[in-house]
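Marked as duplicate of an earlier ticket. Keeping the data here for the record.
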Amino acid sequence: MAGGCLWGCAMNNSNKNFLEHKVMTIEVITPVCCSDGVTLNKKEYLYDNKKRKIYLLHKLEFGKYLNGRRWLNNFERYMQGKEHDEMSLYEWLQCMAGHKGVTIEQLGKAVLATVDVQVEIKRNGEGKPVNDMNPTIHLVDGNVYIPGSTIKGMLRTAILFHLIRQKDWEDRRKIYWRQIQSDIKNLYENRRNEYESKKALAQYSNTADKIEKELLSVLKLDTKEAASNDALRGLRCGDATLIEHKQGKKSAGYHTVILKKKDIKDDTVKEVPSFFECILPGTSFQFSLTLEKSMLAKIGITSVDDLLTIMQQFYEFLNDTLRSGFSKRGHLFAKIDRGNAYLGRNTGFLQKTFVLALADTPKDAVPIIKTVLHQQFEKHKHQEDKKISPHTLKGVEYNSELQLMGGVKIFDAH
C-alpha cells in the first residue's frame, strides 16, 4: 500500500508540475456580442414588432415546418426576391397562413431562441424589421456561449503586448517600431495608387507576423511549421457555457437582448444602423483553462495567476489610453473598470492590435493607426484623427444607460 501511495503521489506531483487546470468564471459587465461574423437580414429571422421580440430560427427544423405546410417552393421564390420581397419573414409567414396566422407555438422546434428588442425602429410610423442584425452564437439548445477561440484570441493579444514591453526586448521593439513607421509612410505616400497601397498594407501585415513569430514561435521543434513552434499551443481554453442561476430562468433567449450600435465621441453620440444581439450584464459563464507549463515557460508564463496579471495590465493600459483620448467620457469607464478583459464584437480597433505596445507613447501610435484605418475605411475620415485613433468609442444603450461594449471579468471562483 505504501509503495502504491508513493507512486500515486509522485504521479500527481508530476502532473501539477506539467499542467495547471482551472475552471474559470466569466462575468459579463457590459453588453457582449460574440458573433461568428454572420449577419442576418429581415428574411432570416422572425420579428414580431407588437411583442418587440426576435425569434432566431433553427434552419433544419424551420425547413421541416415549411415542408409540412407545403410552402417550400413559395419560400424559395420569396428568398430570391420574386415574391413579397418587401416583407419581413414574419410578415411573409402570416401572409401565407391567411387570416388564421402562424403562432410561435406552432413553429415549435423551428424557434431556436427568443430575444427582446430594446430599440425604437419605425417605418412610416409603424414598427419595421431590425434588418441586418448580428446574432451572438447559440448552442443547439438555444443557449448562448462564448467560444474558447474568442477567449484565447484575447489572451494572445494581451500576451503579445506584455512580451513586446519587456525590458529585454526594448532594442527589438525600437527596431520593429521604425519598420512599422517605414511601412506606414510607404502606405501614406501610395494612398492614391490602389496596387501600391495594397502592397504597402501587405508589408505592414508581414511585419506584424514577423513580430508574432519572433515572440511566440520559440519551442524549436523539428518542424518548419511556425504554428507547431508556437508557445501558445500550451494554452487551452474551453468554450464558456452558461452558469445556471437560482432564478430558475433557463429558457433560451433570457440572457440576450437586441441593441443598436452607437458611435461615441466627446461631444456627440451617433446612432448607427447596425444591431447586435448582446449577452446581458450579470450573466455568468464557466470555461476550462489548461496551461502546459513546459511550453508557456518559454515565454515566462508559469501559472494562471501570471496570465490573469498580464490580462489585467493590458486591460488597464487600454482603458487609460481611451480615457485620455475621450476626456469628457470618463463616466463610461466606471462600469468598465469592474472588468479585466474585452470580448466580442464592437469593442474597437485598439483592443485587437499590439501597435500601442510598439509605439514609444500612445500618442505616437495615432499617425500609424489613422493611416491604416483611413486606407481601409475611407468614408469614416480617420485622417482627421488627432488625440486618438479611432476617434469614436463603440457602445450601445441598455436600460437607458450609454455603455461601452464587451467588458467582462474573468476570474477563478474556486
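See parent ticket for discussion. The first strand starts at residue 19 and ends at 28.
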